[in-house]
Design brief:
Elements: H1 7-29, H2 40-73, H3 77-97, H4 102-106, H5 119-136, H6 141-157, H7 159-162, H8 172-175, H9 188-208, H10 214-244, H11 247-254, H12 257-274, H13 276-279, H14 282-289, H15 291-303, H16 311-315, H17 321-362
Amino acid sequence: MKTYRLYFIDIVRAFAILMMLQGHFIDTLIDPIYKDSNFIAFRIWSYFRGITAPTFFTISGLIFTYLLLKANEKKQEQTRIKKGLRRGFSLLGIGYLLRMPFLGWINGYFSTYFLAIDVLQIIGLSLILVILIYILCFKKTYLVLITTLFISLIIFITEPWYRDLSIEWLPLFMNNFFSKINGSVFTLFPWFGFVSFGAFIATLFYLNQQKKIFKEVAIATFISLGVFLILYSSSVLVFLSKLFKIELFLAAANYNYLFTRLGNVILYFALFYSLEKYLKHPLILKIGQNTLSIYIIHFIIIYGSFTGIGLKHFFEKKLTPTAVIIGAVLFLFVVCLLSFLYNKKKVFIFNKIGVVLKNLRLK
């Protein structure tokens, strides 16, 4: 069978991480007086910023599950599962590490805020859950397909039930995965729903990409489904509420940001998949392949991980729109450059270690 490289995945990842970087930079540093919905530029920026996190979670589930299924095809699934578990736990660890105020601890200031959950912890735990789903489905591709879609739909529809959830009897570090009351930026629900839907899309790609005109059909389906979710998902939920006399559907329809955001993500997929041939530039692909180091570096620079001294310390809520736009462009350039330099140095060091170990074995 011919092996297909889905370049659009790296393109979407590159777009998502750059949007995340500029979103954090602008939101943290711009003067609040400019955060006015009366400004059309702010409304547009705010809308597209709201799609960034759903895109990041969905593409994470897509790429991990696709690689897992391809590994199964090559009889290398155990290696991929072990690698995925290591990746998941390392993301959990890095997520906590970035929030640890070591300088504050040295000065005798202690706070539980470092236990707040952010994007890395949710992605890490989600990857572990995807592996668990894969194993519980007996590694059957069609069962994975049905299960991941079902999980996504259930998480999105039941959002009113857990919107204000706080499981106080759980230890704080566990409760933070379900509640934002203690400062968590993201929680497992609803965000695992996007990861699970990404896994669903990955399974569809794996099962069908060998078929003729698959790409054309996939793009058309993305466009149709994306438009449907944005324009009609609320109406469908209202209809189901009346049909089955279930108030939950109506409650979900009245605050239907999950299905509409998913529709936006799917339209992104349609756009970048259709333009894949023109956008698979080495620089774009390299950004998409280095999202973790880019995220870590940007977090340290803006929020001052470990020391508490970052751009936020000096410029929080002080910049004008002109200054913040120019700053955001420079920030993206510097962070990506530092990421490339870091990964180049890391490869050099690992190669040197490999040579040393090889020489030791020869002796």
